[in-house]
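Explain my protein.
***
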Amino acid sequence: MARWFVDRLPQQGIPSVSLRRLLPEAQFVGCHDWEVSGCTADSRRLDPGQLFVAVRGARHDGHLFVEQALERGAAGVVVERPCPEAGRLQVIVPDSRAALARLCQALAGDPSKHLSILGVTGSCGRALTSLFIRSIFEATGVRFGLIGSLGWSDGVTTRSVADTFPGAEGLASMLAAMVERGCAGGVIEVPAVALDQRNVDGLEFDTAVVTDLASLAGADADDGLSTRRRRKARLFRKVVAGGTAIVNADDPQAALLGAVNLDARFVTFGVDRPADVTAKIDRLDARGSRFFLRGFAREVVVESQLIGTAQISQALAAAAVAWSHGLPVEAVLAGLESASKIPGELEPIVEGQGFSVWIDQARTGAELERALGALRAIGAQRIHCVFGAEGLHERSERLGLAKAAEAGADRVTLTTDNPRTEDIDQIIDDLLAGFRRPGRARVELDRRRAIEATLADAQPGDAVLIAGKGVRTFQILADRALHFDDKAVATDWLRSRYQLVRRTSA
C-alpha cells in the first residue's frame, strides 16, 4: 500500500479521511476531529507524520509501543485505553483492530464500494469453493480477483501469499489493485482468524458463503459449535441489504444463520437435503466424479476430475452463488469443470505404483477428516496417513487432528511439521493423547523417513495421504527454516522404487 501522511489539515493531492466520520464511537482527546492520510499498526514501519494504531496481539500489545511510535514521529495514536505517554493527541476506541481495518479500507478508496465482494468461510473447503466461484464468474467474460490460501490475484497476475491471512493494510492494498485492474469483483477466502481479528471490517460484502459449520467425529472439539456459529454470523452481518447469505442445507446447524441478517437473501445448497441448488451423484471414484446439477433452468451433467463428496458440496456452494446472481448454467458448467487439479488439495502423485498417493494441506481436524473421507469414498482398501502438527499451536488443535486421523485412517504415522521453538516430543505427546489406542500409531520424527516408510507399507489398492503441508515447501525449526517438499520427497521415492522394478522386469 502507498505510504500516506497524516496532519490535522488535509494535504492537497493526498487522500484523507475524517476520523470523526469513520469512527463515530471514538473518544477524541486533544481535538474534535482529525483528517488522516496514513496509518500503520507497526511502529517499526511508521513514517513521520503517520497515525499509529495500537493493536493488541497474541504476543505483543501495541499499547506498549506508543512511546516508540511517537519517538519515530507519529502525529497521534489510536488506542483502546487512555495512554498518558501519548500526550494530547489520541483517539480512544472500543476495538483498535476494527478501527485499523476501517481506516485502511477508507484510505485505499473503499474498494469494496467499487467491487462485488464475495466472502467464503467455513471449517473446510474455502479454497476450492473460492476458486470455483472465480472460475464461474470469469466464464461469463468478466475479470474477477481472488484472495485465498493458494494465492491472490488482481484479475491479471496471480501471486503467492504468506502462510496467514493478510493484515488489514495488505487486504486493502490487494482490493485496491483489483479496482485498478478493472475487476468486476473479488472472492475472499475468510478464515476464522480473519473474523476474530476484525481484518475484514470496513468491507461491504455482496455475498457471503458458509461451506459448513459442524465437524464430524469430534474434530475441532475445542472450538464449540456456538463459537463457530458466532464467527460465521460476523461475516453474514457484513452482507449489504439486498445481498445474499448462502449456507449448506446438509449442515443441520446452518439454518440458524438465516436470521442473522434479515436484509439479505437466504440461499441454500446441498446434496442430501432439499435446497435451492442440489445435485444427484452418478459416479464417485479415483478418476473424479460425475453428478447432475439441479436448480437452474435446466439440469446439466458436471464431470469433475476432483475426488470426494466434499468437492461436490463445494461445487454446489459456488453454483449457489451463480444461481443467486442469475448467471447462466453454461458458465457454471464451464467454471466447475475447469478445475482439474488444485495444488495441495488432494493432489495425486502417479508414478506407476499400484496404490494411490495424495498430498493435502490439511492442518486442522476438520480438514484432515474431509481428506480422509474423500479417500474412503472412492473405495480405498486401506488408508495410510502421515502427518504432524504445528508448533506453538493449541493442544486442543492437536487432539482434533489425532481424533480425525484415528477415525479415518487404518494406519497412522506421526511426524514433525513445523515445530518452531516448541519441543518436538511435547507435540507428539499431545497428538498421542488424542488417540483412544495410541499404541497403534507409529512415530517417526524425521519427516522424510516417515513419508518413505509409509509408502513402503502401502499395498495395491491402498491409499496414502501425506497431510499438513500441501504446496508449502519449508519446515520451520527453532533456529532455521529448511526446504522440504512433501510432493518432491514422495515423487523421488516412488520413481526410484518403481523405475527400478520396471528395469528389473524388463
Summary: Residues 1-13, 216-222 have pLDDT under 50 and may be disordered.
